[in-house]
Amino acid sequence: MSQAQTLAVEVIAIEQVTPLIKHFTLSAVDGAELPAFSGGSHIIVVLRGATRIYRNPYSLLSSPHSLGSYEIGVRRMEESRGGSHFLHDQVTVGSRLEIAHPVNLFPLAKTARKQVLIAGGIGITPFLAQLEDLHDGTAPYELHYSVRSPEHAAFLPRLREREGDRVRLYFDSESQAIDFDGLLANQPLGTHVYVCGPAGLINRVMTTAQRLGWPDSHLHSEQFTAPPTGDAFEVVLARAKLTVQVAPDRSLLESIEAAGVEVPYLCRGGVCGFCQTRVLEVDGELLHNDHFLSDAEKTKGKSIMPCVSRARCKNLVLDL
Ligand code: FES
User: Fold this and answer.
1) Which of 42, 75, 104 is the last residue in one of the domains?
2) Residue 212 and residue 120 share a domain
3) Distance CA 74, CA 267 (A)
4) Ligand 1 centre from 81 Cα, in Å?
5) Is the CB of 266 under 6 A from ligand 1?
6) Ligand 1 center from residue 289 Cα (angstroms)
7) Do both 294 and 262 map to the same domain?
8) 33 domain-assigned
9) Could you give the number of structural domains in the chain?
10) What does the mean pLDDT of the chain come to?
11) Do 195 and 147 reside in the same domain of the chain?
12) Residue 271 beta carbon below 6 angstroms from any ligand 1 atom
């Protein structure tokens, strides 16, 4: 993914939908239709700050049938990778941004006999677009939406209006919790389950489904990991013959890009595997934070996903 492939968009509406979530509507600067996408797709939003460039993934929540604009929901993160604060505090109606073409790493399975969607908090966003795809009636579906309190339930009026009783709500504030065993034990053969939200929710759904004998091919999850901060370290890019400093608040990928070296990426959240980079030398510990490499690959230490992973060492040499 290179910057040459980005699209210029303008922010045409911003709405504060919960105390922590803002809803942004973006349209092409030239007024043209935006590229087609399917429910579950995300875009990378490029934000040019005074001293750094942020590239953050956000799920598209608008209808895939309406390409005059894209909509995203942005939660202000406490431990922000930076972009969410930038979007909340500095972007206004009329601001111009760059976005990458949509990519779908969380698509609906076309062969499913039933679709069960489970969202936690801001994890509702990819489902809003998927629900539009599900309105064609090819498979029955239901949505389970777990959130802190009614005040924090983003997009609730839209869901209630469009989905009626196909949405089940669970508010922590009212001690309501999803009965994962009951939900997953009583689905017809051929059902697919999708979960998006905090790591705890995803783990709970996955471990319950696996214990109940669900095939892995029918389980789908999406969680983009924000690049964690950490100690500063140095990396040598062998082919570029460059030594790059990685600051505590920058990801390895951002630091490499800032040095003028391009690394392919799709998600920038440790999911897609596109940024996988060969480690030629390391004299310490690789801090793997991705969901892509297997445990065995992480232990071997021959690859790293620079979008989210770091190192604690004196000497790290990458095949870049
Ligand atoms: S860009 Fe997707 S795993 Fe790094």
Assistant:
1) 104
2) yes
3) 16
4) 15
5) yes
6) 11
7) yes
8) yes
9) 3
10) 94
11) yes
12) yes
CB of residue 273 inside a 6 A radius of ligand 1: yes
Are 97 and 180 in the same domain?
no
The pLDDT tens digits of the residues spanning 7-60 come to 999 999 999 999 999 999 999 999 999 999 999 999 999 998 888 888 999 999
User: How far, in Å, from the CA of 280 to the mean position of ligand 1?
Assistant: 19
User: 270 CB under 6 A from ligand 1?
Assistant: yes
CATH of residue 152: 3.40.50.80
Query: Is residue 228 one of the residues assigned to a domain?
Result: no
Q: Which domain holds residue 286?
A: 233-318
Q: Are 220 and 193 in contact (CB under 8 A)?
A: yes
Say which residue the tokens 């040459």 belong to: 4
The predicted-structure confidence for 152-195, as pLDDT tens digits, reads as follows 999 999 999 999 989 999 999 999 999 999 999 989 999 999 99
pLDDT surpasses 60 at 258? yes
pTM over 0.90: yes
The verdict on the CB of residue 275 being under 6 Å from ligand 1 is yes
Instruction: Look at residue 157 and tell me if it is in a domain.
Output: yes
Last residue of a domain, one of 193, 222, 251: 222
Contact 205, 177 (CB under 8 A): no
What's the 304 CA to ligand 1 centre distance in angstroms? Answer: 10
Q: What's phi and psi for 106, nearest 5 deg?
A: -140, 55
Whether 281 has a pLDDT exceeding 60, the answer reads yes
| CB of 268 shorter than 6 A to ligand 1 | yes
Ligand 1 pocket check for 132: Cβ under 6 Å:
no
Based on the fold, state whether residues 186 and 259 are members of the same structural domain: no
Q: pLDDT-derived band of residue 80, with 50, 70 and 90 as boundaries? A: low
Q: CATH no. for residue 282?
A: 3.10.20.30
Ligand 1 center–CA 265 separation, angstroms: 5
Which atom of ligand 1 is nearest the CA belonging to 270?
3
Pairing of strands 114-120, 141-147: parallel
pLDDT band for position 61 (cuts 50, 70, 90): very high
Q: How far apart are CA 200 and CA 133, in angstroms?
A: 27
Over residues 287-320, the pLDDT tens digits come to 999 999 999 999 999 999 999 999 999 989 999 9
Dmax over CA atoms of the chain, in Å, equals: 60
Q: Which numbered atom of ligand 1 lies nearest the CA of 307?
A: 4
Q: CATH number, domain at 46? A: 2.40.30.10
Whether residue 49 contacts residue 82, with contact meaning beta carbons closer than 8 Å, is answered with yes
Q: What type of residue is 319?
A: D
